[in-house]
Design brief:
Rossmann fold, 235 residues, globular, binds S-adenosylmethionine, 8-stranded mixed sheet, 2 domains, alpha/beta, 9 helices, two-stranded antiparallel sheet, single chain
Length: 235
Amino acid sequence: MNDFQEKIGIANPDWLMSAREKLCLIGLLNTMKPDRVIELGYHRGGATFWLSKFAKKVITVDVNEFVANAEKEYPNVEAWNYPTLEAIDRIKEENLFFDLAIIDADHSRKAVSADVKGLLEHADIILMHDSFNPDCRKGMIDTLESQKSHAYYLDFMPSVSKGDGLWGGLALAWKSKTAGPSIEFYQEKSPYPPTALQNSLRLIPKMNSIKDSIFIFLGSFISKSKILGGRLRGR
Ligand SMILES: C[S@@+](CC[C@H](N)C(=O)[O-])C[C@H]1O[C@@H](n2cnc3c(N)ncnc32)[C@H](O)[C@@H]1O
């Protein structure tokens, strides 16, 4: 797939999305041509490059110091180098509103839930990365199922089980008169449960973790035996 990504100009190891997620974001940006975008989770700016191309104004937020580069590279991008919760406080204080928000920062359930909650009042369309990660998905649901402003679709862009676990996927929420869970097709079934089941049955990551535990146990057993042997010889 990398040569395909190179062929069409989206290959970038610093952009932590799959080819289909990248094309989904580029397509959405090209269709929306948003005035104002907020990005929670800059990393190394893989997505920010495209945001800056299509949006009039972008704010990107990250706790890592690389985010400061965004302002130097793109005249229409403002970098906020602090946690998303502080960014959300500022958005509330200044009463900012965005056509598009992208959430891809702290991936814990609590943090994802708080980021979504914080942006609901301030964004028309919200794109949430890693909707196929079990914790992130729970965090999204925690907030989305109890709000009344946005419709949402957790399987907007499904993901697959990978060697490093179940990551990726894009969920979408949009301001709507019919807030709540949405589907596209009559009687459609979510691809998430079978993918999560498939991921839970993966043997290699489990075997690696058992192997690591055995090595840790053996290492500590051998070092304790050496200490004990030394003490006994010393007596
Ligand atoms: C998965 S990366 C973002 C990837 C990026 N959206 C892309 O497409 O390449 C997550 C980023 O969120 C940042 N991050 C994690 N927790 C954060 C927090 N509480 N506030 C702000 N940034 C955070 C990390 O420093 C990291 O750069």
